[in-house]
Write a structure and sequence with these properties.
heterodimer, A: four-stranded mixed β-sheet, four-stranded antiparallel β-sheet, 10 strands, globular, B: four-stranded antiparallel β-sheet, 53% helix
Chain lengths: 397, 379
């Protein structure tokens, strides 16, 4: 394994040297909020290399990498300052269509996800259906070869950029609420769709509210059977939980933390020389070692997305990211308190106030309080673990 | 020792809370900054009229002669109400410092204007003191006064201030500390204003050979050190008060949310795990309020060492506790608290500033350790 993997690592590094613009990498390292063009530019660069759909099977354009290769790739990308891609098409809709889409849907949508032509959003949560997603009420009725959709979706990431939406609608009210849910693929240019921005705690525009007012979606754009969308959904979401641990990104954040903590001073000496800070940083480093081993173990299992490790990894990965985000903000000291809105997106155009990389740290800490909430709250994840340990038969403890 | 605020002090908190409850919610203020600016001017006039600006200032100069015991409830209410008004820099940092260290003439000239709402102040952090890491200033003695150069990166309240109190050191070998009164419009002074993450205004101040007359010296040498230390302690305690107010308000909102929010056919308030977490948030609020009140009483007592230990204890404990409670409040609200739509996320922003503005919790924990032998009873 050793030599082949080393050769692969070298190949990845050489690609990143060639294809990742230095300016983009510094913006990523400094934590700036990237534009759609920046993100999709990188998406397309990876696509040209054949590496964008890392988790897809080879017959649908995946590069056919081993787990170890995927791990090395993510690690090198994070280290080089490659942006995290817009994930929805690659990690949710793509796998959904590969597993459950019709041949026409696969032929129409998969290439356009891969080559960056289409950006996707997820119309799942509603104001009254968050963790209890099965309680969703956005309705769709059949009429003349279409589903006519009316309802509201919320917390929709990057809806303002999206060309298409994977929409969960209720087509029937049955005994169990999980029955009667249907998955539709919705063209975001259809009449009747309104997008309302929901600025986050960092002032950035990522989340949105979507209103559907009698929007007509062709029946051919339903995935799977009517009323039977829920099991398809369950089969697709598990993957996200492991990916959200983002070990490579945690490591890159810790490296950045060490740089800042060595440079910034508190009470006359470098932050990193303060014992309490150094110890807290060390505990984060140790947690990362545990997380990395757990992720590798999970990925080696036969069905990682639905394995017992997925909820655990989601919890510890997001908690660790949140801890490091706090330490980064703390290390910046007083210069972690100002809020410079345009610097978050554009960087400093005037002389910086304080260290140039301080401006993004606390806004990111605030925004990232979301990590323990989105993609399944950490409370729900704990319920899944507890159910398996305490309720399921055959587990003696 | 009074174990909690008495009726008069509680009345102060209720009055301020009632007043702020009528003001626009922070999300609305963020949406309409022009309207917010007009409201701020009106509010400052009301604060003056209601006697709140003069609350801790000497009666001889238009104040009420109150102590930190009276300021504590007012400041907790400002934190709970997410007030963006420059009360802390003007009254707690500026007013108290002038009342303590200023000459009779300086007090007579400045304190009545502060109490009347005619003068706002900012006091810049100083290198060598907690929260003063963003300071590169120094001063040279000139004929008739001093000349200051350098910059201070984060000065709360500077954009609204009519007068700045700058702590700096002499550039000569002895590096004597100074507290100087500086007009922000003086030649050589440049401000770059920006909001803090909690919405309050601050500025970076550049001083390009700014001349300050001798009568603008507030304190020199040892007196300046003491004045600066006292200002930091007052500021730190004010931050504890604001953090306690913010965490109590965050808890209140969380309770209301859990009581009405239903998922999976049941109230969130009926989920045992969440019930325990709310109980823990409540316990944290009570502990922090107790420590802060204890520090407020110690503040008004003559023993400077006790004052320092009590403030150190309060900030070392309440700084992180407020962060945890406000983070919990967001988590228990779910995604809605990640947006600026509701105030819940803003309590966390306030707690972040409070924990750091006058030195972090780690600094104050170390100060607490240094201040007394372990287990020594202060009473």
């Amino acid at each position: 394994m050793g030599n082949a993997l080393d050769a692969f690592r070298t190949e990845v590094r050489e690609f990143l040297q060639r294809a990742l613009p230095a300016g983009l990498a510094s913006r990523v390292r400094a934590g700036h909020t990237l534009s759609r063009d920046e993100l999709m530019g990188w998406h397309r660069a990876l696509h040209r290399q054949g590496w964008v759909a890392m988790h897809w099977p080879p017959e649908h354009g995946g590069p056919g990498w081993s787990i170890a290769q995927k791990y090395v790739f993510e690690e090198e990308c994070a280290r080089a300052g490659a942006p995290g891609l817009i994930p929805m098409g690659l990690t949710i809709i793509g796998p959904l269509l590969i597993a459950f889409g019709s041949a026409e849907q696969q032929a129409r949508f998969l290439p356009r996800i891969r080559d960056g032509s289409d950006i996707w959003c997820q119309g799942w949560s509603e104001p009254d259906a968050g963790s209890d997603l099965a309680g969703l009420r956005c309705r769709a009725r059949r009429e003349d070869g279409h589903y006519v959709v009316t309802g509201t979706k919320i917390w929709t990431t990057h809806a303002q950029w999206a060309d298409w939406c994977m929409l969960l609608v209720r087509t029937a009210s049955m005994g169990r609420r999980q029955d009667g849910i249907t998955i539709l693929l919705v063209d975001m240019t259809l009449p009747g769709i309104t997008i309302r921005p929901l600025p986050s705690l960092d002032g950035m525009h990522v989340l949105n509210e979507l209103h559907f007012d009698a929007v007509r979606v062709p029946v051919a754009l339903r995935v799977g059977e009517e009323d039977r969308g829920w099991p398809l959904l369950k089969a697709t979401v598990g993957h996200e939980r492991i990916l959200n641990a983002d070990v490579g990104r945690c490591r890159a954040m810790l490296e950045r933390l060490a740089i800042i903590a060595r440079r910034e001073r508190r009470d006359g000496r470098p932050v990193i020389e303060h014992g309490a800070f150094r110890q807290r940083m060390a505990r984060a480093e140790i947690r990362l070692l545990a997380l990395e081993t757990l992720v590798l173990r999970a990925l080696a299992a036969p069905d990682p997305a639905n394995g017992p490790d997925a909820p655990l990894i989601k919890i510890r990965g997001t908690e660790l990211q949140q801890e490091i985000a706090w330490l980064l903000s703390d290390a910046a000291g007083s210069y972690g308190l100002p809020y410079h809105r345009t610097v978050l997106t554009d960087g400093w155009t005037d002389a910086p106030i304080g260290p140039p990389d301080a401006a993004t740290l606390t806004p990111f800490y605030l925004f990232w309080r979301k990590a323990s909430i989105s993609a399944g709250t950490n409370e729900i994840m704990r319920n899944m673990i507890a159910r398996r340990l305490l309720d399921e038969p055959g587990h003696a403890g | 020792m009074l174990a909690e605020p008495g009726p008069e002090q509680r009345a102060i908190r209720e009055a301020v809370q009632r007043y702020l409850a009528q003001e626009a919610d922070i999300p609305d203020r963020l949406r309409d900054p022009a309207r917010a600016a007009g409201d701020a001017a009106r509010r400052w006039g009301d604060f003056a009229r209601l006697g709140w600006l003069g609350l801790p200032l000497p009666e001889a100069h238009g104040g009420s002669g109150g102590g930190m015991a009276e300021l504590w409830p007012l400041l907790t209410a400002l934190g709970a109400g997410l007030s963006l008004d420059p009360y802390l820099p003007t009254v707690v940092l500026g007013g108290l410092t002038i009342a303590r260290a200023g000459s009779a003439a300086q007090q007579a000239r400045l304190l009545p204007r502060i109490a009347a709402g005619e003068l706002r102040l900012a006091l810049a952090g100083m290198a060598g003191f907690p929260g003063g890491d963003a300071d590169t200033t120094s001063a040279r003695r000139m004929a008739g006064g001093w000349r200051i150069a350098g910059h201070k990166g984060v000065v709360l309240g500077a954009p609204e201030a009519g007068l700045l109190i700058l702590g700096t050191r002499g550039a000569a070998a002895q590096a004597e500390p100074l507290l100087l009164l500086v007009d922000p419009l003086a030649a050589g002074v440049t401000l770059r204003a920006y909001p803090l993450i909690d919405g309050r205004m601050a500025a970076e101040i550049h001083l390009d050979d700014v001349d300050v007359a001798a009568d603008a010296v507030l304190a020199e040498g040892e007196a300046a050190v003491i004045a600066m230390e006292e200002a930091i302690l007052a500021g730190a305690l004010a931050c504890v008060a604001e953090a306690v107010g913010a965490m109590e308000a965050a808890l209140e909102r969380t309770i209301a949310h859990l009581r009405q929010r239903r998922q999976f056919g049941a109230r969130l308030a009926d989920q045992q795990a969440l019930r325990h977490r709310v109980a823990d948030m409540f316990i944290a609020c009570q502990e922090c309020a107790a420590l802060g009140w204890r520090a407020a009483l110690a503040f008004d007592a003559p023993d400077a060492g006790m004052r320092r230990m009590a403030v150190a204890a309060a900030l070392a404990h309440a700084g992180p506790a407020a962060l945890r409670v406000c983070e919990e409040a967001i988590q228990l609200h779910g995604a809605i608290a990640i947006t600026d739509e509701i105030p819940v996320g803003h309590y966390l922003k306030r707690a972040v500033v409070a924990e750091r503005l006058f030195g972090s919790a780690d600094h104050w924990l170390a100060a607490f350790c240094a201040a007394g032998a372990p287990g020594a009873r202060p009473d």
